[in-house]
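Study this chain:
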Amino acid sequence: MNITIVGTGYVGLVTGACLADLGHTVTCLDIDVDKVRLLHEGKIPIFEPGLDELIERNGRAGRIRFTSDYASAIPPASVVFVAVGTPSSSIGDADLSQVESAVAAMAPHLSDRTTVVMKSTVPVGATSRILSTLRTTLPEKVTSVGSNPEFLKQGTAVQDFLHPDRVVIGAEDPGAERALRAVYQPLLDSGVRAVFTDIASAELIKYATNAFLAVKLSFINEMADLCEQTGASITEVALGMGMDDRISASFLKAGPGYGGSCFPKDTQALLHSSQVHGSPSRIVASAIDVNRNRRIEMIERIRRIMGGDIAGRSIGVLGLTFKANTDDLRESPAIEVIRGLLGLGAVVSVFDPQGMDNARSVLAGPRFASDPYDAIAGADALVILTEWPEFASLDLARVRRELAVPLMIDLRNLYDASEIEAEGIEYYSIGRPRSVQRSQDS
């Protein structure tokens, strides 16, 4: 099939590359001409494992191309995916201005053979409103519209697309369902489960999924706090919970809170939508509140462990991105914690395997180190904020030599206390007994 993806951000680029790898002919369209130029040059504007190889391979095969021209990108397409951003507005709902602009720009070039599919995350009812707008704008054409939410995890997005848990297809006319079946037929033939439903349900599946996972993360962080007060271990609690098939082990890792491009904005948008429709979601509201306070609590935890006054104290921070295997800093707990430490007068050095370039444009004040050991050289504490694998395999003897004060505050629970303390380093983590006792003694 000929497919056009409008938007070459994280979702659009991964979707386009993966659909090309399934054998479709894909045009990726973006109004950012500089981004398109970089893609033509083989430069990928985001870090996502495996994405560069995928684009290179399908580019050589002639299955993927990049353009800024609607007039050349839309008419040949049987299916057009809208994959532009829907950030939070000032009142917490989804800002649909990019979606509306994209639809308005493509409308003159659509034909009655084209199916427009919403891949962007939009509130319940938005896709149907767009359908109404298209039919008003193009009364002589009958354009099919569908909803196909994405469930990509940054760091594993390529695998998530090519080997998904499920594909969700929302359609209310036979043409849209047929078109989306054809798009995903290679995956369906391999046994991937599909949910065929109405558009409103497809839209809400996306929001409900992300909100539920955000609730799960907020819950396990509250349980970690309870562990610290009772002497229980959050590692063991999460293990025992995760063995229950009704719960599963995913998203049960205690830490400094959730971040990224999806959970913060999607929970806010779902909360706003629930209030607008007179059915407020108190559980989602609580998860948002827990996560917001979590960052403040992490700053206070570091301050308390270091003796109270950290003005002028040197802290080496490992991790800037909101999670490992991405360069995304959006809503990253690490960024907020670092800003908090700087605000308390600390002297902060930072390192991240992929987030350094992006951080320089959003984070003022820290020293940007060349590697983990440079970040902690002469520091009064080492703080781990992101769960990068390389941070879980540091040369601990060298860490001890580099630190001026042998203190590690591991906010991702990457290490076992006995392993660290065998090197003469005082160790604190989250929700585990040894860190609790020392924290109370401080």
Q: What stands out?
A: Confidence is low (pLDDT under 50) at residues 435-442. DSSP finds 18 helices and 14 strands in the chain. The chain has two domains: 2-197, 289-441. The CA atoms of residues 124 and 203 lie 5 Å apart.
